[in-house]
Amino acid sequence: MGQRSITRRYRFCAAHRLHTDHFSVEENRAVFGKCNNPNGHGHNYVVLVTIGAPEDAQSGRTVGVELLDRIVADRIVNRFDHHDLNQDPEFAAQTTTGENLVLLIWDLLVKEIPDGQLKKVAVIETRDNYFEYTGSAPVAARS
User: Fold this and answer.
1) 53, 29 in Cβ contact below 8 A?
2) Would you call 125 a catalytic residue per the annotation?
3) I need a surface site. Which of 16, 86, 120, 134 has the fewest CB within 10 A?
4) Cα 74–125–51 angle (5° rounding)?
């Protein structure tokens, strides 16, 4: 039996500031540029979630899209939409980069989506910035 996948697109708007306490003011400015603005800035994020599983011979569908939509709305969109990412507890010890955001989204979803069905998470931050992660277990659980 083959495996198929489906990718769904979700959106949320959020603010953040790229900054780390591990750097001096000058280092933060040099590394993060205008994204280190003390007032922050925002993005209209697009999140792409790819799921797959052995196809259902009866329906031809891979997994329940309605269930996926509910999970992403509950765990991702409602959590981040119109919020400051720097205020999220998960970012207390790390910078709110797109690389870290895509890993956090993976961790939030992989715990909720049936085993092995989550294939990829991608975040489009700007026209030019795209981040993606594929894995099999929560990132935080890895050593």
Assistant:
1) no
2) yes
3) 134
4) 50
Whether 83 is a known active-site residue: answer no
66: which strand partners? none
Which residue in 22, 26, 66, 82 is the catalytic one? 82
What six digits make up the tokens of 18? 């790229």
What are the φ/ψ torsions at residue 10 (nearest 5 degrees)? -130, 160
Of residues 19, 90, 125, 132, which has the active-site annotation? 125
Q: Catalytic residue at 22?
A: no
Tokens representing 57?
Answer: 């011979």
Active-site hit among 22, 35, 66, 112: 35
User: What's the angle, vertex CA 96, arms to CA 107 and CA 33, rounded to 5?
Assistant: 150
Concatenated DSSP letters for 17-55?
A: ----TTS-HHHHHHHHGGGG-TT-EEEEEEEEEEEEEE-
At residue 14, the 3 state secondary structure works out as strand
